[in-house]
């Protein structure tokens, strides 16, 4: 796997992992029992904690990319 292929694979894995991690721990204003400010969506998350989710996403993507790299480098699965 070349540098460009590895980078593209990592970005794809990272994006899929982000969409997997985004709904973790989300509660909206109605579920949290907080007042909905006029003009805001009542389904908007109270505390999205995006920095934590980006960190978790990066760790998951690095792990999955490492597995992909080993599989491709050592030809564990013939393509």
Short description:
By secondary structure, the chain is mainly alpha-helical. It is 59% helix and 0% strand. The chain has helices spanning 3-21, 29-32, 50-73.
Describe this structure in words.
The protein contains 3 helices and no strands. It has helices at residues 3-21, 29-32, 50-73. The longest helix is centred in the last third of the chain and has 24 residues, at 50-73. It is rod-shaped. It starts with a helix and ends in a 6-residue tail after the last helix.
Number of strands: 0
How much of the sequence is in beta strands?
A: under 5%
In whole angstroms, the N-to-C terminal distance is 13 Å
Main sheet record: none
Number of alpha- plus pi-helical segments: 3
Using only C-alpha atoms, the radius of gyration works out to 18 Å
Give structural attributes.
79 residues, mainly alpha
Which helices and strands, and how do they pair?
Layout: H1 3-21, H2 29-32, H3 50-73
């Amino acid at each position: 796997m070349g540098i460009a292929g590895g980078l593209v694979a990592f970005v794809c894995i990272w994006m899929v992992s982000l969409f997997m991690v985004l709904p973790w721990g989300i509660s909206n204003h109605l579920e949290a029992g907080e007042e909905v400010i006029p003009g805001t969506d009542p389904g908007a998350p109270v505390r999205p904690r995006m920095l934590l989710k980006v960190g978790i996403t990066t760790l998951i993507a690095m792990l999955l990319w490492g597995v992909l790299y080993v599989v491709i480098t050592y030809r564990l699965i013939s393509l």
